[in-house]
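Reopening this one. Same input as before:
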Amino acid sequence: MTRLAAERLDPNAEYAAFQSKLVDEGAIVTFVGIARPQSITGREVTSLFLDYHPRMTEASLSEIAEDSAGKFDVSAISVVHRCGEVSPGEAIVFVATAALHRRAAFEAAEYAMDRLKTEAVFWKREDAVDGSRWIEPTITDQVDRARWSK
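Same output, byte for byte:
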């Protein structure tokens, strides 16, 4: 399951909804990405704006979730990603995976996040008191993504 969320994201509600659909899984792994109050360069961030193309962005989220589920032995996966304006401290992304055993759940969640950071169709802008700037995935993000290609 994937969803774009224009409204504030409640990780606890997302987890409850995800868990309510499970039957006999022995492991659930969740990840919540939070908007940081400072940029990589130390600028105070007042908001993060995630611009998107509804069909392309939704398709990229679905593809990443489906690939994660196909690559690892998980029974369920959820990816919910914010779009629009996000304030520092708010959740940007919620990923949950469920499997019979923990290793598959951890790996699927990590793989999904590495792909989301580098491939999900978003245009991200950091807004600060001294101006705005568009941001791209970092070299670390690219290295994290590349390790799955080995």
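So the earlier flakiness isn't reproducible anymore. For the record, The mean pLDDT is 95.
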